[in-house]
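lol ok so funny story. i was supposed to be doing the assay writeup but got distracted and ended up predicting the structure for this chain instead. priorities right. anyway since i did it might as well share w the group, maybe its usefull for someone
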Amino acid sequence: MMSSNSDSKPVSPWTQPESTHPQTGLVVSNSLTKSKVPFIPKDGNKVSWYGCGPTVYDASHMGHACSYMSFDIIRRIMEDYLNYDLNVVMNITDIDDKIILRARQKHLLQRYQDQKDGLSEQAIQDVESAFCEFVRVKFGADINSTNGWSAFAASTGEGKDPSFTKGDPKLTMLFSAAQATVNALSAARDNIATGKTTKTELGSLISASEDVVASWLDKQFGSTVTEHHIFRDLAAYWEKDFFEDMDALNVRRPHTLTRVSEFVPEIVRFVQRIIDNGYAYESGGSVFFDVAAFDGKNGHFYAKLEPTAKGNQRLQEDGEGQLSEHSLAKHSRADFVLWKKSKGGEPAWPSPWGAGRPGWHIECSVMASEILGPYIDMHTGGIDLAFPHHDNEMAQSEACFENRQWVNYFLHTGHLHIEGSKMSKSLKNFISIKKALRKHTARQLRILFLLSQWNANLYYDSNSMESVIAVERTFTNFFTNTSALLRDFRFCQQESDGTRQFREPELELQGALEDTKDRVHAALLDSFDTPTAMRALQEIIARTNIYLQRGRASIDPQVVEAVALYVTKIVRVFGLVNDGIGSTIGWGTGSVGADSSVPVDRESILLPVANVLSNFRDAVRDIALAGGDKKALLSLCDKIRDQDLPDLGIIIDDHGDGRALVKFADPEQLRREREQREAEEEARRQKKEAQARENEARRQLRLEKAKVSPKNMFHTPEMLMLYSAWDESGLPTKDIDGEDLTKSKLKKLAKEQAAQEKLHNEYLKAQS
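and the output, tada:
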């Protein structure tokens, strides 16, 4: 059947899968149809899922976090809530133009520094030569040395003039790299002049001008870098770094991880099969996919995801990679490379077409099909990969297997915007995951994604994170209060007196809980609508908090526990609780407990609390022996409540009924809150002292002023420069030039004299 949408844009043919097995009722936003459609796996509740993994050449960033955390939330909903049996496969792209360039340039930069004894005039000349070439290639400016840079920079408005940038933000970024090199050369010349010529100074010069020097070295010596381990070592380093970040974000690892370098023979066979089927051709040692031979033939359709992007040469070239030079070898500009002939300085593997390496798009087609077969239920990735990468993946696979629907459901996450601008790695407008985690916790970042629709644009900025922290605080306070309350009820549990406890308020809260369960369930079935689910959870928390205001004597703990356990269940499904935490209420504190397989060191757990209690007992005993000072006892009680126990993560919450409620919290968080309170109190104290000093200064000034007789107040040195005559009461009558004062001026001065007379009389009275 032909899928459709309301925008009347061309949409690819799509067939709804069928199954005789019972379905969950889940519908998903399918990029293949641009609409929500029923999710029906091809084999009962078993789901084959292929997710595009990272190209490992640099640190993972918030764009990665956006995609992988969003799909981790979806995975957890499907696995832990809807009970699908998932088989998740993810690749690591460890053969790619970006990796080759980065590894090659890093190797050449290091080799250059290793060959030098330190900073020298030759090194400065080399960097200046690199700079001149960089400016010529990037800006078309013929500059023979850095001396000509100032005039060029001024003519471009320091790289900000619209006539220079022409709407291309990359030019601003390149200008900054050039300016950094100019500054580094200036500093290097100063170092030479003062005799600072060690390898440290050389390293500073090369590091500051890295973007400029790397491309210069690569142009000269890149073809000499041939050892495979240089490329593999870089990829292995960043792969390890990537998974460290994913573990820190509590993202589950795939069931199967594949690497391109491990599947090269399979890629060769896959490409040969496409050639044999008539959809690809060899040219100049490379192999290209023949779009014209495929599109519209044998029921095939090219660019299913983005039909309007078909023929977009810029996007297609971006997908080919920076090192590709295939325009003359292609039959058509729309064709794309499956196998690249390797040039000097590029890793190579044997093939029927000569030494070469896989194209980017073919990698995922082969690895996914090798593990999951010729048909896949789900394929996921960022929306920026839709065309050409994902569209080319599908074309290659359907050309190889001669099927019409290699993937049934394609899910894409939206773009990430950082402080209002779309994230772009190439423009260096990105934040690494490690940097983000220094500012916010993994739980807070996950809440950010939960509060946004997974396939919509996501905004990461200070305002959105303030909202996230407020939501987290709502959940944390709820878990802390309910856990403490339930613990207190169990500790003080009494036998029934025969009075019914479960009355109308409890029935209403129970009904609200059942309604919440229905709303959350419906939201999660509606293409994983976590924002609606999170709102429902916040509303039942608010409803429960209102119920708790009745006081301990008027509530039933059973219904409170039911709410708390349900909310905990859902936040655990969402991944807000680290895997491995037991069935306790709230975020959990680790795997320590009676049912834990980890040995429990009771002494190390209890000793800090025992020490606090022992010190408290000793102090109470001393006070009692000294006669029992009530004020001292209360002060001691305040100290153990406000300082000693919070340092151990224990909160003593005083209640109006005379019984305190014991709560547990993160001691580090409590320490930060206490330090903030103390800082605020110190600020208030300093402000109060400053105000007191200011008041005293005003009082002293008023006192000095009060000492002056009203008859003499206009005879001070300052006044003698303004007036030349006075009446018998001391009031001025003429100005310094001998002119009579105006009536309004006389009236004003008389008013001031009257005020001074009152002030002086008060002073005289105080003195007597």
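The first strand starts at residue 27 and ends at 30. Residues 1-8, 590-599 have pLDDT under 50 and may be disordered.
back to the writeup now i swear
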